[in-house]
TrEMBL record:
It comes from the Bacteria. Keywords: Hydrolase. Coiled coil: none annotated. GO terms for molecular function: hydrolase activity. It comes from Microbacterium enclense. Residues 9-221 form the AB hydrolase-1 domain. This is Alpha/beta hydrolase.
Amino acid sequence: MTEQNITNVVLVHGAFADGSGWRGVYDLLTARGFRVSIVQNPLTSLEADVTATTRVLDSQDGPVILVGHSWGGTVITEAGIHPNVAGLVYVSAIAPDAGESSGQQYEGFASTPEFVIDVTEDGYGYLNRDAFHAGFAADLSAEDAAFLADSQVPVAMSVFGEAVTNAAWRDKPSWAVIATEDKAFDQAMLQHMASRIGAEITTVPGSHALFISQAETVADVIATAARNAQR
């Protein structure tokens, strides 16, 4: 069994994806003795995703490291007030403050023209398939990127205008992993958010799909959080 202080990890995916992308991180952490649970976000509203995450947190048998990728960062910011959560890990993730929306985090930063979102008539967003490889997963193979593009989960675009009520990072220690070739966010935006929340920052070469392509680094940061969150 692992000697880490915390052995429970909950992983929260972002928009346009589902929990299966965490498989590499899951395998690495479980091999080190962690108990890993993966949330499946409906991506229909902030409340729905927070509820899905809280349901998983309720099932844990002790303190938890709560991890979010991309939009999942907003989800863990709200859901992270759960008493089981001891620390937060943001993986190229959004980190709003209480009263702020995800969309507000983009204000004042450069646009990301390679990250192309197509919106349906009913208000759901998909990443453009032709731009998916370059915009979301440039460091994955063409075959893997095509699978992710064809299996992507649409997100209600309205979620990016929903403000969080709580900011768990204000009371709990945070870590951040930032991909230096992320095309979903301006690098300055990622660095600004991570610095504002006081996160211990790790940068790694990689695309927005770093939760897949850089699974070892992500798993190492989660393990570091587990060792140090309660100190």
